[in-house]
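Task 17 of the worksheet. Students: predict the tertiary structure of the chain below and write it out as structure tokens. Keep your answer in the requested format; marks are given for formatting as well as content.
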Amino acid sequence: MRRLTALDAQFLNVETTTTAAHVAGLAILDSADGSVSREALAELLLDRVPLSPALSLRLAEVPLGLDHPYWTADPGFDIDNHLFEMTLPAPGDERRLAEVVARLHARRLDRAHPLWEMHLIKGLPDGRVAVYTKVHHAAIDGVSGAETLATLLDLTPDGHLTRRRGALVPVTSAPGPAGMLARAAVRAATHPVRAVRSALRTAEDLDAIPVVAGVPGAKLIARAARLAAGDRHHRPELPVLTPPRTPLNGPVSARRRLSFGSLPLKDVKNVAAAHGVSVNDVVMALCASALRSWLGERNALPEAPLIVGVPVAVRRAEAKERAGNQISAMVAPLPTNLPDARDRLRAVGAAMGRAKRRFALAPATWLSELCTMLPAPLTSLATPALFRLAGLAFPPVNLIVSNVPGPQFPLYMCGGRILSYYPLSVLTDLSGGLTITCFSYDGMLDFGLVACPERVDDVWSLLGHLRTALDELLDELLDGRAGDEFRDGA
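Model answer:
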């Protein structure tokens, strides 16, 4: 028996007619031999689902919404509620696949069942198929999502023919209605104490919370709260970050558009090594360059840098087998205001380095603490309105960018080799009408871009700008090497 945390429940509360709070992945597989079929996937899932809490448990709602829901076993589990098959209309190209997956991504999951779906999509050329899988964010974060995906994959083409060995998820049952109400009453009585504790812990990070950090006195309060808590560490001071107004921000609609594509990881690593920065820094700089070009084409490039939210895993070892979220976020400037690509890369390295040093000293817990401060019934009622109001009046970031490291060797599903895996994330009124997520896999960086068409009119051009941005850095790198060789020869 496990009750959802306040952060987990927040991903349920944020859902509205225009927001679906699941994360997803689009895998492209080589199935020239026809091995990846609905029947093979059904057999695989029935074998592997018991290994993952995110796939095997469903929600049990507390009467009257007086407390956060519980995870419980699903005695009526039926694979037909989760596994679906379709064929793309001709021509079965990437654009048509993106249109179909965008419609699937816009639909919310049915809370009467475990919160996931898998769609086998046929009709691609060259013997390829696509598998689109979505899981509710209440059940997984980036790390647990990768672990959930790993339970379905194999290291060899014939790995699915051998039963997967692993620890089964312990069977869990939620308390009955009377037990839920009794626990809710106890939690309601003790909530003020927990709220005060969360408020004090949040105060320590007041200078790192978007929007709030800009309030006069926020930094002074944060330093005083840390001293009162006995924290004598010097934390790198973060700049006050105010997101500029852009077309990316504002209320999102129920519609979604997406694009996907890949960049060579070797090229990104070469750029990173040449400039003494990390792969993630290069990814952020590519996003800055792409957004600068895209906004410039629309005469909407602000003079100030964009502000980006970067999810960060804080999952502890003891939480590895649990469904749910162990995440926080770093907020940093994205230097779209700088005209030179090298300057953008250096600025990203400096900004992300400062944010990482701050996070390493004291991983920020303000995201979960803020969710804990309000009682469950009020949070569920107020969240949608607060998200829309904040998105209109004072958005905390312009967009979310996430980079998830993955394995650098091929993986297989039902005997079919996974050629690419494109991650797809969540849009909300608060975080903006665009998310960029990438996953490093088998020598490539696979990008998935999700957008609201009312905020981003052409998501495929953004993908093209990402490729151009990498070419620009590579050309600069090659020119520099050629100059060095000329000087050495001279």
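Marker's comment: Residues 1-190+241-490 form a domain with the Chloramphenicol Acetyltransferase fold (CATH 3.30.559.10). Residues 485-490 have pLDDT under 50 and may be disordered.
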